[in-house]
Each structure stands twice: as C-alpha cells, then as structure tokens.
Design goal:
2 domains, seven-stranded parallel β-sheet, alpha/beta, 7 strands
C-alpha cells in the first residue's frame, strides 16, 4: 500500500520538529516571560504547518471516535461504512489519523475512492498514523489539532469513544452554542451508546437550568449511515459547496 503523503514544506517541518514535548512543558506550571514567548512562537509554527497541510478543496466531514475498536467490531464496521458513504457523497473524510474508529472511517473513504485525511497527535505512547490516510499531519498540541479539525470541516460525526471523543464533541457543541462556530451538523451515531448521555442532558442539565431546551437541537442522533449522511446533506448543503470553493 502506498505510504501517505506529508505535504508540509520542509522549512516549516524542520522548525516544527523542535517542539516535541512542548505541550507538557508548557502545562507544568508558571514559566518566565521568555519561555512563554518561545511557546507562542511554537504555536505559530504549528498553526502554519496546519494551514499549509489543510489547504485542500471540497467539503469535509470530520469523524470522531475511539482508537480502541479493531476491525470486525460493530462500531469499526459502522465507521467504515460511514467513511465510504461520505466519500461517495462527495466529502473529504478527516479523522484523528489513528487506529480504531479513525482508521475505519479513513479506510471506508479510501476504499470508496474519496480523499482521506489524518490529523494525528504526538503522544507518550506513539500513535502511528493508520495506513488508510492519503495525507497526514502530526500535531504536538491538542488544542491546535482541534482548531484545525474544526476550521476545515463542514460537519462532524461522533461514533462511540472515550474522553477524547467527548472532549471533541463538546468543544464543537460549545462553539456552536456560543455562536463562535456556524451551525454545522453535529451527528452522534449509535443511539444505544449515546442514550444515557442524551438523557443526562435532557433530565439533568435542562432541569437544573444549565442549558436551554433549544440547546438539545445542536446534536443530532442517528443509528444508520443513511440517516447520518442525510442529516449532513440536508443541512445547508448548498452553503457547504459554496464555502468550499
């Protein structure tokens, strides 16, 4: 299988190689002004790297989900089918670039002849990019990675996952709720998995007044690939195409 391309310019890429471990250093506590300035430069370089890499044409859907499901697991196969359906509908499929749900969605897109992108994250225990991405980039900082995945996406689909998936989903939900992000579809697939979270939002968050009833409409739930892709295509589809030009 052809190795995925990393198209980041060599000059930016070589500078970025110096930031490995930077996020952990930055978050360990207060630093001097010089160290903070150095961190800001590193952020700038990483943003540049992301902007160069994600300069592609066409509407894009980002798929979130756990790295822990292997091929043959129902969640993996659901994500694989989703990736294929999105590619056939004309969307680039972007994931975190790792194994599990991410691999499955990239795999489905690649098998369908679509564009498959991975935005990997540098972790203490190495997360190797899955072999089904046409192009991949590795980020050091989680927050920069999330900015890139949100900035270049027209819709978001979350399959079963853990803390990382929940973080990504609620980041997008919060940006939408606070009108920092245009109202793009956010679809959670696998109603059985999300049922208790949906009930918590409805029966606890609304009851306590921490969100409004209208906020429940931000997240759509789907059990089938056809339903999920339909939600995405029906939601301002013309504006997706226009903005992607």
């Amino acid at each position: 299988m052809k190795e995925p391309d990393n198209i980041v310019p060599e000059d930016i890429g070589s500078l970025f190689n110096e930031v490995s471990g930077a996020e952990k250093i930055f978050l360990k506590g207060r630093q001097g002004r010089g160290a903070d300035l150095e961190s800001a430069v590193r952020y700038f370089l990483e943003f540049l790297k992301g902007f160069e890499f994600l300069n592609f044409v066409g509407p894009c859907v980002t798929v979130f989900g756990s790295a822990r499901f292997e091929a043959g697991h129902p969640h993996y196969e659901l994500a694989r089918s989703l990736g294929g359906a999105l590619a056939r509908a004309g969307y680039t499929v972007m994931t975190g670039g790792g194994p599990g749900i991410m691999e499955a969605a990239n795999r489905g897109a690649k098998e369908a002849g679509g564009q498959s992108i991975g935005c990997n994250i540098a972790l203490p225990h190495e997360q190797i990019p899955n072999p089904y991405v046409d192009r991949f980039i590795e980020f050091e900082h989680f927050f920069i990675r999330k900015v890139m995945m949100v900035k270049y996406s027209n819709a978001f689909v979350a399959l079963p996952g853990g803390f990382g998936t929940l973080d990504e989903v609620f980041e997008v939900v919060t940006l939408t709720q606070t009108e920092k992000l245009e109202s793009f579809p956010i679809v959670c697939m696998g109603n059985h998995f999300w049922a208790k979270l949906s009930a918590f939002m409805r029966d606890t968050l609304i009851k306590e007044g921490t969100i409004g009833p209208e906020d429940l409409d931000i997240i759509k739930f789907a059990d089938s690939v056809e339903q999920a892709v339909g939600i995405i295509r029906d939601h301002n589809h013309d504006s997706f195409i226009e903005r992607a030009r």
